[in-house]
Amino acid sequence: MKGLSKMLPKLKKAASFIKKTAVMILAAAALTFSVDYAVLAENNTTQSNTYLNDSYIGSITHKDIIKKIKAGNKAESVQKTNYIEEHAAKKHEKQEPQVDAVAIAVDGQPVVYVASSETAEDVVKKLKLTYVSEEQLDELEARKSVSNPVLPELKENESRILDVHFTKNISVKEDKTVASKILNAEDAVTYLERGTLEDRKYTVQEGDVLGDIANRNNLKLSDLLVLNPGIQEDSVLKIGQELNITVTVPFVEVAVEKEVSEKQTIAYQTEVKEDNSLPKGETKVQQEGQTGSKLVTYTISQQNGRTLKKVTQQDFIQAQPANKIIIKGTKVIPSRGQGHFTWPAVGGYISSKLGYRDGKMHKGIDIARPSDRTIKAADNGVVVSAGWDNGGYGNKVVIDHQNGLRTVYGHMASLCVHAGQQIEQGTAIGVMGATGDATGIHLHFEVYKNGALQNPLNYIVK
Q: Which CATH architecture has domain 256-331?
C-alpha cells in the first residue's frame, strides 16, 4: 500500500498528460496547418516554420518529417504548400523586431527585401545583365537618352540591343521587415530568378517517355512518379494523357529585343543536260557549282534567354550561286554498256551472296530456281570468251561492256554466243546448268570494274 501511494501522483500526472494530448489532437483535426519551407545557407539544412490557424507553433528541421509533410500535401488538413528558397533565421519573423528596409515589388506586391535603394537598383541591373552585357546595356541607355536616335546599318555578323525590359512591373519602395529577410544583391537576384514552384499539367505527345518528360521539366524520374500515383517507371503512356508536373516559375523574367545581321550561304543547284554525242551511261562535269552568299537582318525577341520570335527584316544577296552543270550522255552504242545491269536470269532468287563461304571467297552471287533457264546479257558489250573453263566455272561467258565493267556467267549447261560477238542488253547467251564445280542448277554471276571485284547487287536494277 505504501508503494501504491507513492505511484499515485505519477499515474495521475500520466493520465492528465494523455487527456491533454487527446484534446490537442481533436482540436488539431478541426484546425488547419500550413508549413513554410526554407533552405538555410548558414548550415545547409532545411527548416520548416509551422503555423496553426496563422499562429506560429514551432520549427521542424528533420528531413524525414518534412518529406512526410510534403508527401501529405493533398490531404484536406494541409493547405497548398509554397516552396521558397531563401536565407532564413530559425525564429519566425513575428518573433523578430521590424527594421527599415527597401522592398522590391513585382506588380505592386513586395517580393524581396534589401538594405537600401542603391542595393535595389543594383539588383534590377544585375537581373538585366544576366542576359545582356554591361556594354550593351550602357549603349542602350545612352541611345534612349537621345530623342529620335538614328541607328546605323548593321555590318556583317553584328548585333545590337533594341530594348531590355521586365515582363512584369518592378518597383522599389521603402518598407519594414525583419532583419533575417534582408538579402544582399546577389541573393536577391537569385531569389527573383528562382521564383516559386507551381503545379501544372503536361499533355503527353507522340514519342514521349517518362524519363524525357522529367528531364524537360527539370524533374527527376522519381519525383515525376511521386507526383503521379498509379504510374510506374515502365508504364505505357497514351497520347493526350495528362501528367502532374511541378515547374519553377520566376517572379519576373527579362525580355530582350535585339537586331542581328548574319551572313548566310546560298546553296547551288545541280543542273543536268543531255548530250546525244556522249555515250549513254557516261557523264561529265561541264561547270563546278559555286555557293552564293546573302546578308540577312533579323529582329529577335527573347525571354529569359529563350527565343520567342525571329523575324527577317532585310535579305540582301551579296553573291548569286552558280549551278553545277553535268552533261549526261544519251547516245546508245550497241557494244557499250549503259552502266547499270538488268537481272541476268528469268526470275529466280539469290541462293548465295558474295563473301567468304566454307573458308573460300565466293566471288559473285548464285541465282537459282528460275521460271526459265535462259541466261541473258546484263548490259551491252562484246563477248571476250565463251567456252569451257578448267577453274571450276564449267561453261563460262565473259562480256566486256566497254566502260570499265566486265561480267562473268558460270556453270551454264550450254552457250549460244561466241568470242568477239557484239551483243545488246537482254540478249540470250546460254542456258542455266550445273557444269563445273556446282552442286545444283544455278547461275554464278560476277562483276568486275577496272579489274577489281565488285558486288553485283550494287549494279543490278530489277
A: Single Sheet (2.20)
Q: What is the dihedral of CA 402, 408, 412, 415, to 10 degrees?
A: 20
CA–CA distance, 43 with 61 (Å, rounded to integer): 11
- Three cell numbers, residue 133: 552585357
Reported pTM: 0.50
Considering only residues 424 and 41, tell me which one the structure prediction assigns the higher pLDDT: 424
* Residue keyed to cell 527577317: 312
Q: Give residue for cell 516559375.
A: 249
State the CB neighbour count (10 A cutoff) for residue 278: 15
In the chain, list all ranges with CATH 2.70.70.10: 345-458
Closest CA to 350 of 262, 456, 447: 456
Closest Cα to residue 93, out of 128, 131, 59, 44?
A: 59
**Region(s) of the chain under CATH 2.20.230.10:** 256-331
Q: Rounded to whole angstroms, how far apart are CA atoms 185 and 351?
A: 78
- In angstroms, the CA 69 to CA 74 distance is 10
More confident residue, 73 or 378: 378
Residue 377 near residue 395, CB atoms below 8 Å: no
Q: Dump pLDDT digits (tens) for 299-356.
A: 999 999 999 999 999 999 999 999 999 999 988 888 899 888 999 999 999 999 999 9
Closest CA to 380 of 412, 333, 429, 418: 333
The average pLDDT across 195-214 equals 90
**Residue carrying the nine cell digits 543490278:** 460
Question: Do 158 and 265 form a contact (C-beta atoms < 8 A)?
Answer: no
Residue ranges matching CATH 3.10.350.10 in the chain: 196-249
What's the rounded Cα separation, in Å, for the pair 149 and 65? 61
- Give the three cell numbers for residue 234: 515502365
pLDDT at 78 over 70: no
Question: Which CATH architecture fits 345-458?
Answer: Distorted Sandwich (2.70)
User: Which helix (H) or strand (E) element contains residue 15?
Assistant: helix 2-29
Residues found in the chain: 462
Q: Does domain 196-249 have CATH number 3.30.420.10?
A: no
Binned at pLDDT 50, 70 and 90, residue 21 comes out as very low
pLDDT 10s digits, 252-290: 999 999 999 999 999 999 999 999 998 887 899 999 999
Q: Give the chain's radius of gyration (CA, Å).
A: 42
